[in-house]
Amino acid sequence: MVDELSLPFSVLQSPPPTPFKPRLCPLTPPLRRRFHPKPTPLRFLPFSLPSFPKQSLHCSSSSMPFQLSSSSQLQYNLLYSRAYWVTKTIIAWDVDVEDGSCYLYASKIAALSVTDDGIQGQDVEIKLEEDSSGLPPHVIEKFPHIRDYRAFKVPPSLDAKNLLKYQLAVAVFHSYGKCSNATGLQLPGILDELFSYDGPLGALYSGEAVSLYLWAPTAQAVYSHIYKDPVAGSPLEIIPLEETNGVWSTKGPKSWEGCYYMYEVSVYHPSTLHIEKCYANDPYARGLSSDGRRTLFVNLDTDGLKPEGWDELADKKPDILSFSDMSIYELHIRDFSANDNTVYPDFQGGYMAFTLQDSAGMLHLKKLSNAGITHVHLLPTFQFAGVDDEKENWKYVDSRILEKLPPDSAKQQVQITAIQNDDAYNWGYNPVLWGVPKGSYASDPNGPCRIIEFRKMIQALTHIGLRIVLDVVYNHLHASGPFDKDSVLDKIVPGYYLRRNMDGFIENSACVNNTASEHYMVERLIIDDLLSWAINYKVDGFRFDLMGHIMKSTMVKAKDALCSLTKERDGVDGSRIYIYGEGWDFGEVAKNGRGINASQFNICGTGIGSFNDRIRDAMLGGSPFGHPLQQGFITGLLLEPNGHDHGTKAVEKAMLASAKDHIQVGMAANLRDFVLTDFEGNERKGSEVLSYGGTPVAYALYPTETVNYVSAHDNETLFDIVSLKTPVEISVEERCRINHFATSIIALSQGIPFFHAGDEMLRSKSLDRDSYNSGDWFNRLDFTYNSNNWGVGLPPKQKNEKNWPLIQPRLADPSFKPQRSHILAAIENFTNILRIRYSSPLFRLRTANAIQERVRFHNTGPSWVPGIVVMSIEDGNKGVPGLSQLDPIFSYVVVIFDACPTEASFISSTLRGRTLQLHPIQVTSTDEVVKNSSYEASSGCFIVPARTTSVFVEPRKI
User: Fold this and answer.
1) DSSP 8-state symbol, 209
2) Which of 15, 212, 233, 281 has the fewest beta carbons under 10 Å from its own?
3) Contact residues for 536 (Cβ-Cβ < 8 A; gap 6+)
4) pLDDT range class, residue 879, cuts 50, 70, 90
5) Is 500 left (phi over 0), alpha (psi -120 to 50) or beta?
């Protein structure tokens, strides 16, 4: 994303928005992380540019902040697209014609220009009449942001389909004939009405032929360039495609399989005001050459692309009876093995590392799978920008040199950032093509290798009892315009796939090049892509990046389409595919600004999950955008101050009490209608418990709509944020215990628990808060358990420098660094708490009603004991009226979470007289601290050690 542009350049490009400034409350999205693309070159305009002041102009997604004279302004008006052709017979424009007139203009060769006398260079001129009744309801529903625009009637006899291939503009004239306003047109509305299409797209393979289909209704001509070579060489042939109602197609010989192709599309592009000859990959590509230079003709159903036993893989998937039984482990493909010396060097950092069943990493995943982890969530695996697919082009830093530097040195980050755009690392949130595995993770980025190896990875993870979730990024694209090599969709149908603001410039709130799922063929592409991954790669779930930027209707249709898949017809059981995402509500889509979006509050009732940031922020304190020393429930708020000014003790106590309520709501799956007693003694529904900004904490209707987490790839790791927020004088043993305490709250909550890879082994990124491009050095995972990667230098300057004064003394202090014994203990504690979750179905209740009936919180009301959460879960008994029996082993569970730095006691008359005992897994663990937990039946008194989660169970009498 560019920071500043000179004016003549910025008025031509779709300007990025002003940086999004989230509220400092628990309802903010996580830090975004992206590769920053370079500006694309420009073509000349059909008119000369005037001189402008030399000061730079910050890009904005709102109207351009400069003023011109009327004649100069008219000259530039075609750079904007402020009118909307919404249906065949309606153009919407926020303009007052008064007693003047309005005209539509079209030029096949894009020769339109504007003067005071009007539009010049047109082939077609059509007078438009204003419709005093305004825009019809169905148009307002589709385009709510222009609800107040005026409607202009287009003659129904007009050949609109043909005109959509032209440069288009509308202009308003005063009654005395002078042009007062003019602008270009946004076309998604009429394109959806006239050209929505459900037929074949992409390359289709039959016994004797290969057929190509491309949806490009605004194109004037389309050719397919066929190549033998993946990168170099001239085309074997150039084939013209024929158009039928916006779809271009051709048929070729079977010999095309294994070759490559590119589309040449001649189309008007609003960013340059020219008819451009664009060269693009197939939006429905299923294979690519390295770095997406060309699309591979590949039939994914070919036997030669399937590992042995591939077609039977669905039958070998570990069974999952309910999504409530899920536990998710978030992992980056390169992180998994880039530094694993038990992996063959050629496999390190790629798909094939997962096929080595005895590597340190795979043995670790087996350990987690055996303990209860059901799903591995892989960060982006599609073709993304930011990492060269050709390994010989990668640059490296000598880690032996870095290892000799001090733990608080700034020299490591200098060397890492010097090559960060040329190394092998990026999280991958820079989509180029959604439907093809990333080439840099494959042994060979050309040909079908990436397809075969991706399938082998899926197969290997399935064989150790894990299902696979893919991280999908449908909310934006890395590139746009007619020239960028990574631009695809914006070359095929310019101005359609990407969401534009009221000036016609591309919205960038998701980072850059926001997509528009409210447009029919964008939605279709997303759903088709999901189905391809599910059917052709047999994945088991999808995590939607910035899901709130996608329309709710798209998400529901996607869920329904996936759920309809069957083993018999499609080779997969779609009813077992889970989807969830980030339901943040910001940018142009906020408050349903572009239609009902898939935000946390809107998505409830669909069965689609969303991340619960409320429980994260209540546990840690503040938000990712607040002061890094702001404390929360587990990091010492009130009970162990770190010196940060949180206000008076009364304020701190109220903050701690509120955080406890937020956590309790989250532990009840963040259910909107769950009733609990708050810290003031009032009975409230989860939706009546309010966040710091006055927004309801709870929003879910079903337990599986809540994904509880305390850390993820965004922001600091759990160990790092604990090390930052807790007082500097506490011991590393205490920080390790807090790390486990945090994961135990997530693991024992109702809903779906989500863990960041390395949470279980105290993973550190040396306090890097945004490691998307920080290389292997700061993102290292060590499955030999010798290091957690703490103290490998100050984190990269760009995102962390303002916190260096806090970070440096911590990194320099050797007492902060965990030893191998701490890491091993953390892993055992983590796997034990997972085993406890799966020891009883009471921790995984499937309905909101079951949670309301069985889950209760006890340390509530104004007399609550600070720092303690007490939760009970009740089961029924066979043959006894009331609750049904779910657990054959335990009839009652009490869990006490003690965040205090000292041992705590809690007395409850409600829990008196029971036959509770410490859970057998905790009794037999090597954690000697938890074994000091006790319960006295006669008094109902529990004693729990500091920073400990103690699970008490009541065994059934057999």
Assistant:
1) E
2) 233
3) 286, 300, 301
4) confident
5) beta
The alpha helices in 801-857, defined as continuous H runs, are 804-812, 820-837, 848-854
Amino acid at 696: P
Pairing of strands 752-756, 706-708: parallel
The phi, psi pair for 439, rounded to 5°, reads -75, -30
Give CA–CA dist 765/774, Å, rounded. Answer: 9
Q: Considering Cα of 282, then 284, then 288, then 292, what sign does the dihedral take?
A: positive
Contact 624, 714 (CB under 8 A): yes
pLDDT in tens, 85-121: 999 999 999 999 999 999 999 999 999 999 878 899 9
Q: Is 644 helix (H, G, I), strand (E, B) or coil?
A: coil
User: Any idea what the Cα angle at residue 782 is, between residues 748 and 785, rounded to 5°?
Assistant: 70
Phi-psi region of 878 (alpha: psi -120 to 50; beta: other; left: phi over 0): beta
**DSSP structure class, residue 751:** S
Provide the 3-class DSSP secondary structure of residue 182.
strand
- Joined tokens for residue 717: 């790791």
Question: Which pLDDT score, from 0 to 100, does residue 134 have?
Answer: 97
pLDDT top residue among 54 and 923: 923
pLDDT tens digit string along 758-780? 999 999 999 999 999 999 999 99
Write out the H or E segment, with its range, that includes residue 205: strand 202-205
DSSP-H helix ranges across 180-323: 188-195
- Alpha helices by DSSP H, listed for 321-445, are 333-337, 360-371, 399-403, 411-418
Within 8 A by CB and 6+ apart from 121, the residues are 107, 111, 112, 113
Q: What are the angstrom distances between the C-alpha of 345 and each of 351, 419, 447, 914?
A: 12, 21, 21, 57
Is the separation of the CB atoms in 414 and 401 below 8 Å?
no
Residues 6+ positions from 409 with CB-CB distance below 8 Å: 793, 794
620 DSSP 8-state letter = H
* Other Cβ atoms within 10 Å of 301 Cβ, number: 12
Q: What residues are labeled active site?
A: 545, 582
| Whether the Cβ atoms of residue 427 and residue 282 lie closer than 8 Å to each other | no
Residue 480 near residue 432 (C-beta atoms within 8 A): no
Q: What is the DSSP letter of 391?
A: G
* Euclidean distance between the first and the last CA atom of the chain, given in angstroms as a whole number: 66
**What are the residues whose beta carbons fall under 8 Å from the beta carbon of 630, sequence distance 6 or more?**
621, 622, 644, 646, 725
Percent of the chain with pLDDT over 90: 90
For 670-728, write each residue's pLDDT tens digit.
999 999 999 999 999 999 999 978 999 999 999 999 999 999 999 999 999 999 999 99
Q: Please state, in angstroms and rounded to a whole number, the distance separating the CA atoms of residues 354 and 340.
A: 11
pTM for this prediction: 0.93
pLDDT at residue 225 is higher than 50: yes
Q: Residues in the chain, how many? A: 958
**Where does 597-670 have alpha helices with state H?**
600-603, 613-620, 649-667
Alpha-carbon span 659 to 25, nearest angstrom: 12
Beta bridge partners of 219: 267
Q: Name residue, tokens 């979006």.
A: 597
**Coil, helix or strand for 511?**
coil
Give the position of tokens 């390395």. 758
Residue 138 Cα to chain centre, angstroms: 30
Name the residue among 691, 662, 693 with its Cα closest to residue 676: 662
636: left (phi over 0), alpha (psi -120 to 50) or beta: left
User: Rounded to 5 degrees, what are φ and ψ at 58?
Assistant: -70, 135
User: Which tokens go with 543?
Assistant: 């995590």
Identify how many contiguous H helices and E strands the chain contains and give both numbers.
25, 40
**Looking at residues 544-567, what average pLDDT do you find?**
98
Beta bridge partners of 895: 871, 951
Rounded distance between C-alpha atoms, residue 853 and residue 848, angstroms: 9
Per-residue DSSP letter, 680: T
Q: What is the pLDDT of residues 396-425, one digit of tens each?
A: 999 999 999 999 999 999 999 999 999 999
